[in-house]
């Protein structure tokens, strides 16, 4: 059975919700046997007509019950609706017994099938086993098993086939729930990583420019004013990037990140050696390397205490080196973990270590 959805959910309806009842209705042709038995029974015409009406009502209840449970909004509602329908089916079956006697057992397979698709698995299996015992023991007790022996394999087949369908469907729903949970977790991680990358870089640049403006406010007011205007512009850009990140539209562009790195390093008083042509990078790798470059430059400005920084780009690699205090013994921070996740997700590797001669060297290869 398909997972129930809220009634006001937008979008196309689940095909099972619309047409699932047909899977049960197609077997109603077999109710012709108890109906024909009722017509030919040695009973008054009124009893025979009433029994035929009961069989028809049984068929209608079966179909309506299937429609109701497939359109239920929650699993709790499925159980409630299904239990009511199951009770009505059993009562209708019993009411036909005075007229068609053991032939009423021909309706048991429908009760078993309905229970399997509308009740919790344990209860459905219990109904199925009771139905199987009924079609075997009742005729044997009455000495009429030769009239209904064919119902035993039918009930076994219905019980096994619907049970397998129910188990597979239950596993499918469990898989869907697990998959959805993983999707939510991955999206949460992506959002946290992107927000960190955007805010970490932007706030680092704003801090550097604010410190520069503070030093210049007395000696060069015009330059300090220009820096403050840039801070305002950067703040607006950061806000726009955060909004784009939350909506999933944020895409880092390599050429823009190279230009931003040049400005950020210069404002921090760090001599920068940057590539002139980012287009040498394979287009498949540019977005990942752009994010890696942004985080690497942010770390250089924030942590390295470096005086110089060199960035090299190739078809499938990025190298960022500085002459600062080195990586030390600290583990990966949130930003570097985000870089590793992005790069490893693209099939690449990240290495961070001490640079010969002092400083830190970060290398990304895809």
TrEMBL record:
It comes from the Bacteria. GO terms for cellular component: membrane. Pfam families: HATPase_c, HisKA_3. Keywords: Kinase, Membrane, Transferase, Transmembrane, Transmembrane helix, Two-component regulatory system. CDD domains: HATPase_UhpB-NarQ-NarX-like. Residues 289-366 form the Histidine kinase/HSP90-like ATPase domain. The keyword tRNA processing does not apply. Residues 187-251 form the Signal transduction histidine kinase subgroup 3 dimerisation and phosphoacceptor domain. One of its GO terms (molecular function) is protein dimerization activity. InterPro entries: HATPase_C_sf, HATPase_dom, Sensor_HK_TwoCompSys, Sig_transdc_His_kin_sub3_dim/P. The chain crosses the membrane at residues 20-39, 46-67, 87-117, 124-142, 148-168. This is Two-component system sensor histidine kinase DesK. It comes from Ornithinimicrobium humiphilum.
